[in-house]
Write a structure and sequence with these properties.
744 residues; alpha+beta; 29 strands; 32% helix; elongated
Length: 744
């Protein structure tokens, strides 16, 4: 047995008082690279494995999977099978994307390897979030492996508490922070940003990111040192070089076929057809040329060569002319069209169109029973606001299986973050809110269309948001030391550019941000310029939105749930619920309402109609009624006493009918007049705290035409012996019945 596995290579790095541990060699030694990373009591194990592709897939097959083991925080999964293995949760999917996005561009183009990165949370102290540890550990594991990799990078989170930046804040600190940004950084620049903020100015976010980038440099150096100590020899990789003669011939044929003109066609589908005609002409020209007709390897490279030529042409035109594919300058936002309230039976809806990108957003309001509940390492998570983004294949004119992709989950999460800060507090608007953004046409920036359309749908539904939110996607063309920022990028500009930078927010500040870049890194100057240009674009879009809906509608849709809050005596909650929930189930079944009862006596009622709401409230309050002096009640005799009987006037409300108040004539024994279970109509003649006295005699006198006189039903004068016996009996009766409650 090799005992070296228990003597791993271990490095410790301290950053701003927090200790980070890198370790390799103890676990997963058959993987190409494996790193255990620890901060506090949180531990993440990341492994990387690869195998050579038998034939090219036309793309780099990198798979990243992040999974949280519930045992990491001492929990058992709540699923039926009590296992974590299966479909990843939304959170796990989002963290997988966080790991994937910064490392994918660092593999060399043309690498013929199928690569799998697995990140597993082994321990969670519920203070240090494992997501950023997994990002850093993934970089370290690949850096150690035999795979060529232009790293390392570090994942980190930055917050701001009481005006001070905090690196990798704890969960408690994040709750107090007004920014929550996750970033990836190399030794020289930022490579990825994702996060949310509470109306924070752009310059503050730039300062936070630059501050964090500098602070994490020791973690970059620690990965380099770990590689020096335990890294493997990198596999041989020779970048593919294009045949200059083939490149020249393709360029010649494409130019003759009108590539330049095809890339000036402003409409997406027409441009796609024009590019396809150019490709067909180029292939026909090569097949007719004896020098290339039989060279199948060269012909297979033509699509990639044409794509590179298109990219070069578009970028050159932007740099030299300042003109983009659709003829816009670098700062103009595409034409915007908006319609609100387009669906007759939904609670809120809007169509948001920007150029050839169009989203249909729908808002649905629900009750507290519609909240999303999920297992997590930190306990059960409850969400009252959900935004789901859909990207059906018809939106880009394609035929594909309809599946929920990671991209859809990620875009929905970004839009949800962007809109969450403007939502009303739960206590002011207790509805569960779901927004769905259906991308019905797409030509770039559909995630930001989800933000704009989602905001309009919320306002159309009457959700009292604090301010409108808009989003815009920015692009970058960087040639040597020169850079050009593009506002509101097209899909082709995203593919041919160097950056996809999405910024959402109100007129006052940023609420959501996401950045991916394809160059080595992004300097602070470029990011600051992009932020400022995005601010201008966002204000323009907000202006267009407020022309259609300046503020939320004053009333909810008539098809939205009707809501009312009731407050009852906590003591009668058990009566409302009933044995085994019998009573509350009967109420909700009869009315179609949803009822949420709290121990404090607060009851939230959500009903499908106003009539159902009123009926539900009446049925609930039936159990919380209180007696009134001078009012008649018909109730059952619950107990027979020597001095009278106990009658249940209302649910949980009982009264003593003294023997002297049972009839107009003298009653020798109580059982001469009443029996157990008999219905008796009585009048309440006295309420003293929680003790109630009632009279059948007063009701009989009224029936004989004698109006009730309180003095006539006062306690009769008795001998000291009988008075003492009666007082004792009435007290016992009151104690036995437990007393009725009046409070609401």
């Amino acid at each position: 047995m090799n005992n070296d596995i228990f003597n791993p290579t271990r490095l410790t790095c301290s950053v701003l008082g927090k200790e980070y541990i890198f370790e390799t060699g103890r676990l997963a030694n058959q993987a190409d690279g494996a790193v255990w990373m620890q901060c506090g009591g949180t531990v993440v194990l990341v492994t990387v494995c690869s195998q050579t592709l038998e034939q090219s897939k036309g793309f780099f097959p990198l798979t990243v999977e992040y999974s949280e083991r519930m045992y990491a925080s001492g929990r058992i999964p709540g699923s039926y099978f009590r296992r974590e293995i299966g479909r990843p949760s939304e959170h796990e999917t989002l963290v997988s994307r966080l790991i994937d996005r910064p490392i994918r561009p660092l593999f060399p183009k043309g690498l013929q390897q199928d690569v799998q990165v697995l990140a597993t949370v082994l321990s969670a102290d519920q203070e240090n979030d494992p997501d950023v540890l997994a990002m850093t550990a993934a970089s370290a594991a690949i850096h150690l492996s035999s795979l060529p990799f232009d790293g390392p990078v570090v994942g980190a989170r930055v917050g701001r508490v009481n005006g001070e930046f905090v690196l990798n804040p704890t969960f408690a600190q994040r709750a107090e922070s007004d920014i929550d940004l996750v970033l990836a950084a190399s030794a020289t620049a930022l490579t990825m940003v994702e996060g949310e903020a509470r109306f924070v100015p752009e310059d503050v976010l730039i300062d936070a990111l630059e501050w964090a980038r500098v602070q994490v440099l020791p973690l970059v150096e620690a990965q380099e040192e770990l590689k020096r100590l335990a890294g493997k020899q990198k596999m041989a990789f020779t970048p593919h070089e294009d045949d200059p003669a083939l490149v020249a011939r393709v360029s010649e044929l494409a130019s003759a076929a009108g590539l330049e003109a095809a890339l000036r066609v402003p409409e997406k589908m027409e441009r796609k057809d024009a590019r396809a005609r150019v490709k067909t002409a180029v292939m026909e020209g090569l097949l007719a040329d004896p020098a290339w007709a039989e060279n199948t390897a060269a012909l297979a490279e033509v699509p990639d060569l044409l794509a590179a030529l298109e990219k070069k042409t578009v970028r050159r035109r932007i740099v030299t002319e300042g003109t983009r594919i659709d003829g816009r300058d670098t700062k103009t936002v595409r034409p915007i069209q908006i319609q609100a309230g387009v669906l007759p039976r939904t609670h809120g809806s809007a169509i948001f169109r920007r150029g050839e990108t169009k989203g249909l957003a729908v808002c649905t309001l629900g009750s507290s029973t519609d909240e999303q509940r999920m297992d997590s390492l930190n306990g059960d998570v409850v969400k009252r606001f959900m935004l789901h983004y859909n990207f059906p294949p018809f939106s880009v004119g394609e035929v594909k299986p309809v599946r929920l992709s990671r991209r859809e989950v990620g875009h929905g999460a970004l839009a949800e973050k962007s809109l969450r800060p403007v939502l009303p507090a739960d206590e002011n608007f207790p509805f569960t809110i779901r927004v769905v953004s259906e991308t019905v046409e797409s030509n770039g920036s559909s995630s930001m269309a989800a933000v704009c359309g989602g905001c309009l749908a919320l306002m159309d539904a009457g959700v009292p948001i604090s301010a409108p939110v808009a989003g815009v996607a920015m692009g970058l063309i960087k040639e040597e030391d020169k850079f050009i920022i593009l506002t509101d990028i097209l899909g082709d500009e995203d593919a041919m550019g160097d950056m996809d930078f999405k910024v959402a927010g109100t007129a006052e500040g940023v609420t959501g941000i996401q950045m991916d870049i394809k160059v080595e890194g992004l300097s602070t100057d470029i990011m600051r310029a992009a932020m400022r240009q995005a601010h201008e674009g966002r204000l323009h879009i907000l202006g267009e939105m407020t022309r259609v809906l300046a503020e939320p509608r004053k009333e909810l849709s008539p098809y939205a749930p009707q809501f009312k809050e009731l407050y009852v005596n906590p003591d009668i909650i058990r009566l409302i619920i009933g044995p085994g929930g019998k009573n509350i189930k009967a109420i909700t079944t009869a009315t179609g309402s949803s009822v949420d009862i709290e121990d404090s006596g607060r009851i939230s009622v959500f009903s499908p109609t106003a009539e159902a709401l009123e009926r539900t409230c009446q049925m609930l309050l039936y159990y919380d009624q209180h007696a009134e002096v001078g009012k008649n009640y018909t109730g059952k005799v619950k107990k027979i006493l020597e001095i009278g009987c106990i009658v249940e006037l209302l649910p949980n409300v009982e009264a003593l009918v003294h023997i002297s108040q049972l009839d107009t004539a003298r009653v020798p024994q109580v059982t001469d007049v009443v029996s157990l279970g008999q219905e008796l109509t009585v009048k309440v003649i006295e309420i003293n705290g929680d003790r109630i006295r009632a009279s059948r005699k007063a009701v009989l006198l009224e029936e004989q035409g004698h109006p009730w006189n309180p003095e006539e039903t006062a306690r009769p004068a008795r001998s000291s012996e009988s008075r003492g016996r009666g007082d004792r009996g009435e007290r016992r009766g009151g104690e036995r019945r437990g007393g009725g409650r009046e409070r609401h």
